[in-house]
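#onboarding

Welcome to the new folks! Below is a worked example of what a typical request in this channel looks like: someone posts a single protein sequence, and someone else replies with the predicted structure as tokens. Don't worry about understanding the tokens yet, we'll cover that in week two.

Example request:
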Amino acid sequence: MIIADHIQIVLLVSGAFTMLPIVVFLLPTRGPKLLFGIDAPGGAGSLIMRHWGLLAPSLGALLIYAAWHPELRAPLMLAAAIEKAGLIGLIVADWKKPHTAHMRPIVIFDLVIVSTYAVYLLHFL
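Example response:
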């Protein structure tokens, strides 16, 4: 199976992209504009966005780690697929709103990743 033959590369690339929100954690005032084309929220919204900016990259780092630890792949890929599917759903629900304009490429990339993970996981179950 071609996906299984290249799963390390899939995990490295998808993990690296999943780590991109670290920009929001490190640059709370400029990160949202750089990554999503939106202004940084204030107050509690800033706190939640920064937390997500640390949580998503943590999952990305675990995906990269799983590239060399096959015993962790299934649970980590499943967790990442759920997170990515949730993000896809949120963006699609607001698809026509201006704030999702810069987020639409995320939908395409994450759809490919979720589909790839699903094929890999279903093949090995």
